[in-house]
Amino acid sequence: MSQGLLAATRYLTIVPVPGASRGGLESVGRAAPWFPVVGLFIGAVLLLVEGATAWLFPPLLASLLVVTAWKLLTGGLHLDGLADCLDGLVGHDPAHRLAIMRDSRIGAFGAIGLILFLLLEVAALAEIGRVERWRALVAAPVIGRAVPALLGRLFPPARSDGQGAAFRGALVSAAAPIGIAVAALVAVLALGAFGVVALAVALLAACGLAGFLVTRLGGITGDVLGAAVEIAELAVLLTVAAWVHARA
Q1: What's the domain count of the chain?
Q2: How far apart (Å, rounded) are the C-alpha atoms in residues 42 and 101?
Q3: Do 34 and 11 touch, CB atoms closer than 8 A?
């Protein structure tokens, strides 16, 4: 159990933990049930950052600092996958798209997409009131990290030798149910009954994105899993922002 938690923490964050450095997704596939727990740790750190920044700065600047801390804590891991997926959309066929995604350089689609994505996160967080903001910051990272195990079970890998295939092959059968159960519990504790709505919207958004990319790539990759985590987190923030706005 401790090894699984350490492996998940090592891969999903920049926190220095004992053991080898980040490796392929196969080494963390068995640790997937611990992903939402790491998400809860990320949420706790964000709460500390939010408490300090909200006291010192106006809402927009505070939200920008929280999102910055969020992405720094995760090492930009999932943002990299999102940028690669966006760049890959310009390919002519699945093989060409996968080749583009393997290129370490970021293209115009990826750069523009990341800018718009981060602006959406900052704006959504800034529009959520202080009372609901901490709830969203706790729920979003947990829900987002329940997504990879679910997608690994729902969709085939794009390449037999890729990271998506390695992760999927190492998944334990209980990873997806455990991840969703933990995410549901945290969402309800943080957001009440509305947490079920936020969870449902996030999972639908992640599955919808993955389903679309599977039609373009022929299956999931490590980049697709990372992009889905980011989309799920954004979906939670947007759903909570809409909820707050509707009640105003």
Answers
A1: 1
A2: 27
A3: no
- 243 Cβ neighbours under 8 A, 6+ residues apart: 132, 194, 197
Domain interval for residue 23? 2-247
pTM, two decimals, is 0.94
Kindly provide the residue ranges of all beta strands, DSSP E only, lying in the chain, ordered along the sequence: none
What pLDDT, in 10s, does the model give residues 59-114?
999 999 999 999 999 999 899 999 999 999 888 899 999 999 988 888 899 999 99
β-sheet bridge partners, residue 157:
220
Cβ 112 vs Cβ 120: under 8 Å: no
C-beta separation of 73 from 45 below 8 A: yes
d(CA 56, CA 73) in angstroms, rounded, equals 21
- In degrees and rounded to multiples of 5, residue 157 shows phi and psi of -75, 150
